[in-house]
């Protein structure tokens, strides 16, 4: 079983829509969780950390469910510029493991 | 914020040659850097952890004699793909943790990546 798994999508949504997707992790001892954004042929960039209590950054909301071992990302009021691949990442033993990414395409 | 620079961004080489990729932390010292590889539509896979002044730690299945890692200073790690073959064509990304950003985890910053194509 992969350490981190994501629905690859793609999620095709109109501008202004809300889109949400999850990421599951296999190691219950995982320490920290993140969402990264990766544009085509570019390096990943940190979007936000995911805290136990859940956290929000503008239109982005991240949640952690330790009991079911998943994290989620919700994007409200989608913009064209939100089109990207979103990678979840989990730290185990100070190493960062990534999911394969969920592709989101926002259309006009 | 912290910056990690990677060079070259693109490299095309003939099969059997060796290619060196550099990763530099520009405004912070990194005792540890990480090398990832990403094939199209796949996740970033950790290849090895580069440790300043000591041997790199390789992940299972990564050949240490093929992927030579040298971390000679606190701001530079190099990855050399030796005797490259077409199946080594991939996107190689380095990263470093800026411990100033918080505790043992800190924030991981990525280089721009190096796209290797082996003909």
List the helices and strands and how they pair.
The complex is a heterodimer of chains A (108) and B (119).
Chain A: E1 4-6, E2 11-14, E3 19-25, E4 32-38, E5 45-50, E6 55-57, E7 60-65, E8 70-75, E9 84-92, E10 95-98, E11 102-107
Parallel strand pairs in A: 2-11
Antiparallel strand pairs in A: 1-3, 3-8, 4-5, 4-9, 6-7, 7-8, 9-10, 9-11
Chain B: E1 4-7, E2 10-13, E3 19-25, E4 32-38, E5 45-51, E6 57-58, E7 67-73, E8 76-81, E9 90-98, E10 107-110, E11 114-118
Parallel strand pairs in B: 2-11
Antiparallel strand pairs in B: 1-3, 3-8, 4-5, 4-9, 5-6, 7-8, 9-10, 9-11
Report on this structure.
The complex is a heterodimer of chains A (108) and B (119). Chain A is 0% helix and 56% strand. By secondary structure, chain A is mainly β. The N and C termini of chain A lie far apart (38 Å). By secondary structure, chain B is mainly β. Chain B is 0% helix and 52% strand. Chain B has no helices and 11 strands. The N and C termini of chain B lie far apart (37 Å). Chains A and B meet through β10 of A and β5, β9 and β10 of B.
């Amino acid at each position: 079983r992969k350490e981190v798994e994501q629905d690859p999508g793609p999620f095709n949504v109109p501008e202004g829509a809300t889109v949400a997707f999850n990421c599951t992790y296999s190691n219950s001892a995982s320490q920290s969780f993140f969402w990264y954004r990766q544009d085509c042929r570019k390096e990943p960039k940190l979007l936000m950390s995911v805290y136990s209590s859940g956290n929000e950054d503008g239109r982005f909301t991240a949640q952690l469910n330790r009991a079911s071992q998943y994290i989620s990302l919700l994007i409200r009021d989608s913009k064209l510029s939100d089109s990207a691949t979103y990678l979840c990442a989990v730290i185990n033993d100070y190493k960062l493991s990534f999911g394969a990414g969920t592709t989101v395409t926002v259309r006009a | 914020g912290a910056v990690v620079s990677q060079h070259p961004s693109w490299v095309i080489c003939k099969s059997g040659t060796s290619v060196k990729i550099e990763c530099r932390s520009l405004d912070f010292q990194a005792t540890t850097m990480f090398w990832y590889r990403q094939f199209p539509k796949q996740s970033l896979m950790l290849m090895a952890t580069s440790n300043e002044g000591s041997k790199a730690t390789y992940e299972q299945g990564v050949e240490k004699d093929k992927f030579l890692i040298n971390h000679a200073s606190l701001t530079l790690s190099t990855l050399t793909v030796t005797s490259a073959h077409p199946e080594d064509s991939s996107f190689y990304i380095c990263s470093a943790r800026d411990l100033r950003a918080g505790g043992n985890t800190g924030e991981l910053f990525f280089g721009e990546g190096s796209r290797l194509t082996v003909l």
